[in-house]
Structure formats: C-alpha cells, structure tokens
From TrEMBL:
InterPro entries: RNA_pol_sigma-70-like, RNA_pol_sigma-70_dom, RNA_pol_sigma70_r2, RNA_pol_sigma70_r4_t2, RNA_pol_sigma_r2, RNA_pol_sigma_r3/r4-like, WH-like_DNA-bd_sf. Residues 122-163 form the RNA polymerase sigma factor 70 region 4 type domain. Residues 14-79 form the RNA polymerase sigma-70 region domain. Belongs to the sigma-70 factor family. ECF subfamily. This is RNA polymerase subunit sigma-70. GO terms for biological process: DNA-templated transcription initiation. Gene3D superfamilies: 1.10.1740.10, Winged helix-like DNA-binding domain superfamily/Winged helix DNA-binding domain (1.10.10.10).
C-alpha cells in the first residue's frame, strides 16, 4: 500500500465532496463555521488514520461522510452537555434569585475546562459518556446502538468518570 497514493485519493475525495459535505454538516449543526470545523476535523482524522494504515483501500467517500456526521453529532451532544451543566449550576443558586452573569460565566468556564479534559479521551469514550449523560441512554441501549458489549460500555464509562473525578479534584 502506497501511503502517498492513499493521501492523494483522500485529498481528491475531500476536494470533490467538500461543498456537498459542508451542506450536509450545516444542516446537522446549523452553522457554516462549525460545519467547516467539523469537515476539517473529519479530514484530519482520516488523514491520520490513513497514515497509521487503519483506513481500508478503495473509495473513502462514505467513510468521510460517516466520520464527519459522527463528529457533528458529537459536537451537538457537547453543546447540549454544556448548556445542561450551565443550567444545573445556575439552578444551584438561590431559587428566588436569577443567577448572576458572573455565576453563568464561571459555570461556562468550568464546563469548557471539563470538556477540554474529556476531549483528550478516545472518541468512543466521549461518545459513550455523552450518550449516557446527555441522551440519558442506559448502558444496554448504548451497547446496542454502538454494537458493543455492555461490559465494554461500562469500562468506557468508568474511564470517563475517572477523568471527571480527577478534573473535579483539580478544581
């Protein structure tokens, strides 16, 4: 397998499909700028996977779209987690008072910090964590959706929760 040929094919596919891919992503995320970021991230992820020899030979158009779609959905889940976290922190304030803008800013900063730490974890770990915490799916539902064993889902959740616990202790 010639790595240069593979990268050349990926570049051609990305150049050919870019406009259509951005349209698909824009419909998912609702933003041109975020669609651009997701498309770029998908391309880089495939580029790296090809470099490591993890992308099968042949047409990678479908793989590009699937990767981009999954990244877009992860991005949306992350936004939902952030908003839910901010709402929870804000509701911890005195219920008779509306939360101060300082409190909201602090909550958003904390959430960004947590999401940054979770962002260093493997994509599957983040996806399982978000499916459980944001979409409120059970471990069995996540296992079925992702084609994994419940045991593996449990292990990935333990990993994500350890990261969250370490982050919390460092705050």
């Amino acid at each position: 397998m010639n790595p240069r040929a593979d990268h050349s094919a990926l570049l051609e596919v990305f150049a050919r499909e870019r406009k259509r891919l951005l349209g698909v992503l824009r419909r998912i995320v609702g933003s041109t700028a975020i669609a651009e970021e997701v498309a770029h991230d998908a391309f880089l992820r495939l580029w790296e996977r090809q470099r490591q020899g993890c992308v099968p030979e042949g047409d990678c158009t479908g793989l590009l779209y699937r990767t981009a779609r999954n990244l877009a959905l992860d991005r949306l889940r992350g936004l939902r987690v952030r908003e839910r976290y901010v709402q929870v922190l804000a509701s911890e304030e005195d219920e008779e008072e509306s939360p101060s803008s300082e409190r909201l800013v602090a909550a958003r900063e904390q959430l960004e910090s947590l999401m940054s730490v979770l962002g260093r974890e493997p994509a599957r770990t983040r996806q399982i964590f978000l499916l459980n915490r944001v979409d409120q799916l059970s471990y069995a539902q996540i296992a079925e959706r992702l084609g994994l064993s419940v045991s593996l889902v449990e292990k990935e959740m333990m990993r994500a929760l350890k990261v969250c616990r370490r982050w919390r202790e460092s705050q």
